[in-house]
């Protein structure tokens, strides 16, 4: 029963990402579509940077400092974070070589890849926590669910407005969502004896590097390109408020 409960918690946390696709079903007037896109992009920007700075980096670095000591911990943390930056630069460069009819579509795909990498270790962490202590796992699963919702928005919105296909936007969002229960399943079947807090922390620091680099180098320039600063700031404020609610109430 512990295994079933742990898998259910991690699955629900991951599938919460699909809730972020709900806005694609909201009818927006043609003249307001660009404004809606800018708000969504800047909202995603705030969430990605906020989660990285307030959650992934400090918690993961603390684990590594405890495991390796101050000097080695800082070096290992920095290397993992830097590798994440290099990965997104490489992916962005390679995707520039591909012919995309719309920059928004490329942005949605990059978001999807980054968040698949993010959700996979989160699924492992949620599963392991729930397996050891279901109450603790439920709290962690709720926190992850709340920040998975805006992550779903960051995938679904760009892809939908690039392709005008709800089906494709939902499918790409689902690929990110399913990474969390998949991580849980692999943790149980193959990886249980190899998973350590240090390994998960290394992966999450790498993901933090990916998300911050993606937010600053890809999402921000795209949001600014529409020259709608008021809506850009509105999206940032909404994202910041949601992050504050998440961290202060949970």
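Sequence proposed for the structure above (250 residues):
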């Amino acid at each position: 029963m512990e295994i079933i409960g742990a898998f259910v918690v991690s699955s629900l946390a991951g599938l919460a990402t699909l809730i972020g696709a709900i806005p694609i079903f909201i009818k927006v007037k043609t003249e307001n579509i660009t404004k809606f896109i800018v708000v969504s992009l800047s909202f995603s920007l705030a969430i990605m940077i906020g989660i990285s700075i307030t959650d992934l980096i400090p918690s993961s670095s603390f684990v590594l400092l405890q495991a390796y000591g101050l000097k080695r911990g800082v070096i290992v943390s920095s290397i993992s974070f830097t590798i994440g930056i290099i990965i997104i630069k490489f992916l962005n460069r390679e995707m520039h070589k591909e012919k995309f009819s719309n920059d928004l579509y490329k942005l949605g795909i990059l978001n999807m890849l980054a968040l698949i990498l993010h959700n996979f270790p989160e699924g492992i962490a949620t599963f392991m926590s729930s397996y050891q202590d279901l109450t603790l796992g439920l709290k962690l699963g709720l926190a992850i669910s709340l920040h998975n919702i805006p992550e779903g928005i960051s995938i679904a919105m760009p892809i939908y407005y690039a392709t005008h296909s709800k089906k494709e936007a939902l499918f790409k969002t689902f690929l990110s969502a399913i990474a969390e229960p998949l991580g849980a399943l692999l943790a149980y079947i193959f990886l249980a004896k190899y998973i350590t807090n240090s390994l998960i922390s290394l992966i999450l620091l790498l993901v933090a590097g990916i998300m911050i680099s993606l937010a600053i180098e890809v999402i921000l320039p795209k949001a600014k390109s529409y020259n709608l600063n008021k809506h850009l700031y509105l999206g940032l404020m909404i994202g910041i408020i949601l992050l504050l609610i998440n961290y202060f109430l949970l």
